[in-house]
Structures are given as C-alpha cells and as structure tokens.
Amino acid sequence: MRHTLSVLVENEFGVLARIAGMFSARGYNIESLTVAETLDPTVSRMTIITRGSDQIIEQITKQLHRLVNVLKVVDVTEEGDHITRELVLIKVNADGEARAEVLRLVEIFRGRVVDVSPRTLTVEVTGTEDKIKAIIDLMMPLGIKEIARSGQVAMARGAKTLGGERKPARTEG
Amino acid sequence: MKKTGAQIFLESLVREGVDTLFGYPGGVVLAIYDKLRQYPQLKHYLCRHEQAAVHMADGYARSTAKVGVCLATSGPGATNTVTGLVTALMDSIPIVCFTGQVPTNLIGNDAFQEADIVGISRPATKHNYLVKDVKDLARIIREAFYIARTGRPGPVLVDIPKDVIMDTAEFEWPQTVSLRGYQPTVNGHMGQIHKAFERILRSERPVILAGGGIVWAEASQELQAFSQRLKIPVITTLMGLGVYPSPHPLNLDMPGMHGTYEANMALQTADVIVGLGARFDDRVTGKLDRFAPKADIIHVDIDPACIGKNVPTMIPIVGDLKDVLTKLNDLAKDDPRSAAFARSHDAWIEQLHTWRKNHPLFYKPKPGVIKPQYVIEKIYELTRGEAIITTEVGQHQMWAAQFYHFSKPRRWITSGGLGTMGYGFPAAIGAQIAHPDRTVIDIAGDGSIQMNIQELAMAAEYRLPVKIAILNNDCLGMVRQWQELFYEKNYSEVMMGGLPDYVKLAEAYGCVGLRATKPEEVVPVLKEALSVPKCVVMDFVVDQEENVYPMVAAGKALDEMLLLEA
Q: What is the ipTM of this complex?
C-alpha cells in the first residue's frame, strides 16, 4: 500500500543523501520526495511517498528513526485524515484554437496562466495527485511541451500538528 | 589560550579516556602526528594497512567494552578503512575512526589523495561527520564517542580537513551531549515486559535465543539468573558465544547453518522463543517461512528496527537488555508461579538432551592425519578455555565456534555479520594490546591469514605474543565444501597454489614459526607456542577433505540438517 510520510530532519548538508541512501540500500522505493525548511531554520520537513506492505512500511519508519539527523517520522496515511497537494507547471502548445481550450481548462481546474508567449502558455495548477493527473491528461492532446511537478506535500487535517522538533520516545508495538 | 585543531583532537581523545590509538600517518594528518609526543597518555600503534587498524580497534573494543579508536590519512588511507567499518557495523561494535581530508577549499576538486569518505562511509557507519570548522571539533568528537557506545553500538567516522587540523580555536570540552534526533530507548516498557513474562509462564517448550546484544549490555549474569530460575534452555548465537557457560545442561550452544542439532531442533519445536539481543539473521533462521513454525516470538532489542525485520514478533520490547532482564528477574523472583513453571517442562529439557545425545558434535579421527577439530580441542584443553580466541572466516571459524567452549563473554572475537577474511589476526593484536598478560590466539585458515599477513611486522615490532593457529588444508575450505556438496565437486579456483612456507614467513618477519603434520605433533607445537613470549605462527597441516557438520544448506529449513554419518 501507498504511504505518505512526514519527516522532520536537521537542516544540514548530507541529510538528504542519508535518507535517499537508506532507501536505495535497503531496496525501498521513493515515489515522491519533497524537502524544504520549516519555521525553524535548523529543521527541514520532508514529505516522502513510498509503497510497501505493512511490514516494509514499519521497517522504513524504523530505519528513518535510526538516522541520527532524523527528528521525527509520522506516517500521515496511518494517522488518518490529511490533505495532500502538489503543484505542476505545464508549458503547453497554444496555437489557434488550442489557446481557447487551454484557457478553458485552466479555469475549470482553478489554475493560473503564469507565462505567455505567441505559441505557448505556461499554466500553474495545484491540487491532489488525481487532479494533477486529470489536467495533464486533458492537456496532452493539445501538445504539452514540458511539465515540472513539485512532488506532494501533506498535512493532517484539524488542529493536530507534527509537533515540536523533538523526537518522541520510541514506543513499543 | 588557543589551540590548534591537532591539539584539540588529541586533547579530546584524552578527555574521552582514550589510551590506545591504531593508525597510519600521511600527508594531511602530519600535524596531528607532529603533536602526538606531547600526549604520552596516548599510545599510538603503527599498523601496516589501515583496514587492519580498524580491525585492531574492533578487537580492542570487543575484548574491553571500550570504544576502539583508529586514525588514517585522506584518500587511500580513508578508503582502506571501509571493510573494517562495515565489519564493525554489522556486528554492532563501537569504534571511532578519524580520517584526514584535503583542505576545505580543495574538497570537490579531485585533489591529490582526495576521496569523499563521508559519502563512501555513510552506509558503512552508524553516523559520520565532516568537520568544517575547528570550533566544532571538540563537540563532534564528544558526539562521535557518545553515538558509538550508546544505544546499539556501532562505528562512527569523523573526517577532518587539513586546514581544520591546522586552524586554532579555544579548547572547550562540552560537558554534555545534546542530540535531539538521537535518544535510544534504554528502559524497557513495563507493560510489554509483563506481557512477555505471562506468555513465558504459559509456555510448554520455551527457549531463549541470546545474541551479541547480551555481550554489549553486560547482561550475562542476568541472563543466567533468568534462565536458571525458570529452567529455560539457552541457545547462543555466533555473536553471543560465552554469555552462557558451555558446557551447561541448559546451554544448547549455537543455532543455524552450522549449529548443533539440539539448538536447531529446539527452535523448530519451541512454542515460545525469547530473542535477546539477537537479530534473527538468515544464517540463524535458515529458510525463513519455515523457521520456528510453532513459536510465538518475544523479541528484546535496543534497536527497534531489529524487531520484526525478519520474523513476525508477538511481543516486541525495546530497551537495554540489562534493564529488561533485571525487570524480568524481579517478576520471576516475586511470582509464586515461577517455581511450578520451572518444574513444568522437564520433558522438554529431556527431549533436548536426547537430541544432543543422539546427534552430538563429532568428527572421525583418521590415523596419521591431523583433523582440524582436534587442533581446536587441544587449544581448548591447553588454555583451559580461558584464552581470547579470534578467528578469520570459513571452516576454521565454525569449528572454533563448535569445539572451543566459551564460558565468559568477550573471549570470542569473530566477524559474524560481514564475514571478513583477514579480520582475526589484527583483531587479535587489538585484544592482545588491551590484555598484555592474556593468551590471545587467532584461529585461522591458510586463505584468510594471507589477507592481513603484513601485520606480522607490527606484532614483531611491539613484541606482541599473539599466537596464530593456521588450520592449513591447502585450499579455501568452506568454498571447497560448498563446491563438493552443491556444485558436483567442481573445485573451481579454491586450490590455492603458491602457499607460502608459513614457518619461514614468520621467521622473515621476526616471529616464530612452528609446523605440525602429524596428530602427535599438535600438542608439542601448541605447548611450545604458548610458552614463547613472542608472536608465533603455527602451521597445522590438516585433512583437506574435512567438512563442517551439521550443515543447513542455503534455502533449507533448520530441521533439514546434513549430518555427519557415524
């Protein structure tokens, strides 16, 4: 099954390599990984999307915990309701009739045109993975020249937060 | 007063209580070597290859429970340490390995003797550091030792660029270590411990599987108390040999590929297995989906990632084994059901003893030919089981595990996880330096010993009385055994031509060389070797065809052992 992990790490050089290296060394796959600073500049937040049996996901979580620079690991999928978002930039052919179609699609998907040239439009769309996939599929026949996807970020719904930067005591079971 | 990075480095080692350092100098670490004499508390031993330096630090650590320390220069010096680091990582051995690095402004420029050792050693260490500012050096050294020895121990590498070594800063030794991402769980969860105890009391065929974790938690006494109060038999893994007295009626010795019949049958028949600091690796479990089909597994380990990794676990307990076993002993002591439980499974113990009686470890003597097992039996007798034994990797290693009976921890030093040929001799040197008055013997094969043979020079230079017993079968014995059994005796590249004359070789290095070719020469050679206060190489010319039994072939279940026919 697919799992989304939110991971707080020390904002230091080499941490991304440690995490990517752990995944590759142990044969786990990464479907998507994003990383950026948090409100605390010494801490970065990663969102990792991976896939595996419950036993594999448990190992991934534990192996992440073992890394000295990892402060906290939360399996967002296990924790319950959460929001995921991804951003995509699509540079699409916008010659003639296609131009109007692109603009219609952008409106339907609540996207924005962020760059214009005589023969292309570059649009920005944000949403769940399904929504991103849908707009790409619909734009495809018009002639997509290039896409850039941000990878997904995730957050729990409601007042619940990922908590401080302290790693909690490891629990049994 | 400001100090240079070199002085801060050496000062920090002194503060950590280090007295022994294994190393090899080179360009970027010369400033450290330049200041070495100002710190007479630090005794530096000059190895002949950096891989050996790490194994020496490893043998030093395993025989003392202290952190082993080694030092290498940049580039090839650093890359030579990698095998030693992985050896220590796989067996959870605390080591801090320092490497020099090219100056910060040259990093990434493919400078002379530059290697990205932090990148290379990332999966080879528990953690590693590149020191970018001399002001961080003392703190990083303090953290490195802390990480190496706490939690599940392991090797830590600290890479120090030349400019950081030359730079100056105020020396300030941090009073505490604060690592927000590293807080090992030491105290076992009482609720889980209760659950485990209750499950044990309901068992009919319980067995304990004790591993290297017992050694590092110094929990051998607690293990024995628990096992003996409840009469639970104990299997000790390769890494755990010595944590339980052998022979002892409740000790079933080693499980796994070359384990005893009774240990393997016990695992396959038990209804409860209590894993204590053992990681259920493939050499222990055999074919995983047929391992311990009847057992509920209780698993105690300080590393949560070890639990549930290979075998499904009914009751996981994360914590230090001394803490958890002390709590279990308190429960057992106060519980009126303990005494009845201890008497409840006599039939089970009886069954184990019957298995042992019917299928003991044995070998068939052959007139005029030295059997390798015989040499180990004689080493055991002549040292009264009190020597520190190290090994290389292969048949001799398994025979040593089977026929030298260990009764105390830290007397058995072997590369279990990585299986590193060339480990035993440098590890013996490390152990000998830590214990100058003890008998330290490397049981070796004629293949393995050649992988770090250059350290004979070091043994001679420092007058270390390490003994090397080569079980010389003139081939790579374990590989030959596999080829005989699984590759239709197609002996491909295992008959090593060009073996050196080990007696002359020893003498060339300034050591003593002895040879035995007949069974009656074995004891005199051993006696002479043990009486000489020098490094001695013993060349025992043994039966080439001898195989290690029992054997669980790769992919087979533990109860499908190949046994030696009587």
A: 0.91
